[in-house]
Structure formats: structure tokens, C-alpha cells
Write a structure and sequence with these properties.
Pfam families: DUF760. The chain is mainly alpha-helical. The chain has eight helices and two strands. A two-stranded antiparallel ribbon has the order 1-2.
């Protein structure tokens, strides 16, 4: 993201969670920037007033967003793997016939062809890496994000399906997380705050951005743990 993104989103304590998932991290930062604005933090001090009746909903929606992003990532990855498997099967059908003709060649010719095939595979790997880099640059120029574009392409029922916790246990964990965040970040050390008073709580934009980013990461991490648990049951 550009310098207009709240600086605290780059805090090292958060960066370790998503350093290997640039698209995921970019998706979260774009979502937060769309919510809180793009004024650069080094030039403006932005404060946000969060109404009391939204102080539970805000972290909840952020956790659910992270949960949804994990499911979207998984669906995209599954589709890509299926496409690669199909391409591999198509190649496998062609190769046996090609190798069959090698039996009619001399040993030197077969060795030469095998070396050429090895060189071609190396070149293909380099080309694939270059294509990935070009796609990354192209996406940045177009200011696009495949993960967010995929979510935008889905119908509301599918979005709901991706965001829905798979069990009551997960719902309970999310509920406990939200309550913990609410008491720590909004009620603070003054538990006597009148929750019926809708004057709200003022919080810096950068601090709120860090909090929402953390909530999204927790939702994403929670879904990943849930998936690994399901796999362990199957195995």
C-alpha cells in the first residue's frame, strides 16, 4: 500500500502474522483504508468517534472479515490446483508417446534430448517466476487485488456462506474475543462507563486501524486452526 495507509499497520508485531501473504495483507489494509480514510498519518492527526452500540460490532465484523478472507483464499487456491492438475494430466498423455520414439535413437541422441528437456524445464521455471513478477507489477499499477476482486464477484448468499462459522464452538470463541477486545480497548480501566450513553469513545485513527487489522488477522488465524483441526480428524 502507499504511504496514505495508517503507519501503525506496518508495526513489526503485526507484520510477522502475514509476511508471506502479501495479497492477504494488502486486502486487509485496503479494507481498513476504505473504512477509515486515506489521509497520510505523517501529515494529519485523525480521530474517530466510535459510538457505544458499535463498539462490539466493529471488532466482530473485522474478525469475520479475516475468517472470510481465509475461505476465499482457500477456494482460489483449490481452483488453481485443479487447473494445474488438469494441465499435468494433459501433458502426461502426450509424453509417453514422445519417449517411445527415443528407443529408436542412439544413446548419445537420447542423452542430448534429455539434457535439452532439463534446460527447457529450467527456462520454464524462470519464465513462470518472471510472469508472476510481471503480474504482481501489473496488479499494483492497476491498483487491484485478486482476493478482493474474487469476493466482489460473488453473490451475497455465497459471501454469507464464506463468512459463516462452521460450528457453535467457533462462534463462542469469536464472541469471547469480541468481549475481551471491547473491555480492553473501549471500556479501558473505567468499567463504570454508562453503555447507554451514546456519546461514543474517541480513538486515534492509527490506533483503531491497528486494532482492526489485528482482529482480521485473528479471524484468519482462527479459520486456519479450525481447518487444520478438521484435517487431523480426517487423517
Amino acid at each position: 500500500m502507499s504511504s496514505s495507509t495508517p503507519d501503525d499497520l506496518e508495526d513489526s508485531s503485526l507484520r510477522c502474522f502475514a509476511s508471506n501473504h502479501w495479497m492477504l495483507k494488502d486486502s486487509m489494509k485496503r479494507t481498513i483504508s476504505a473504512m477509515l480514510g486515506l489521509l497520510p498519518s505523517d501529515q494529519f492527526h485523525v480521530s474517530v468517534r466510535v459510538l457505544h452500540h458499535h463498539q462490539l460490532q466493529l471488532p466482530l465484523s473485522s474478525i469475520v472479515t479475516g475468517y472470510t478472507l481465509w475461505n476465499a483464499e482457500y477456494r482460489i487456491g483449490s481452483t488453481q490446483n485443479k487447473n494445474k492438475e488438469s494441465e499435468g494430466q494433459a501433458t502426461a498423455h502426450v509424453l509417453p508417446g514422445a519417449h517411445h520414439t527415443f528407443n529408436d535413437l542412439s544413446s548419445a541422441a537420447q542423452t542430448f534430448i534429455q539434457n535439452m528437456e532439463s534446460d527447457l524445464r529450467t527456462l520454464q521455471k524462470g519464465l513462470d517466476a518472471q510472469n508472476c513478477e510481471n503480474l504482481y507489477i501489473q496488479h499494483n499499477r492497476k491498483d487491484s487485488n485478486d482476493l478482493l476482486e474474487y469476493l466482489r464477484s460473488l453473490d451475497p448468499p455465497m459471501i454469507y456462506e464464506l463468512s459463516k462459522p462452521s460450528s457453535s464452538e467457533v462462534e463462542g470463541i469469536v464472541h469471547q474475543l469480541v468481549l475481551s477486545i471491547y473491555h480492553k480497548f473501549f471500556l479501558g480501566e473505567d468499567p463504570s462507563v454508562d453503555e447507554a450513553d451514546d456519546s461514543g469513545t474517541h480513538i486515534s485513527r492509527d490506533h483503531l486501524a491497528k486494532l482492526l487489522f489485528w482482529c482480521m488477522l485473528m479471524g484468519h488465524h482462527l479459520r486456519g486452526l479450525e481447518h487444520r483441526l478438521h484435517l487431523s480428524w480426517v487423517i
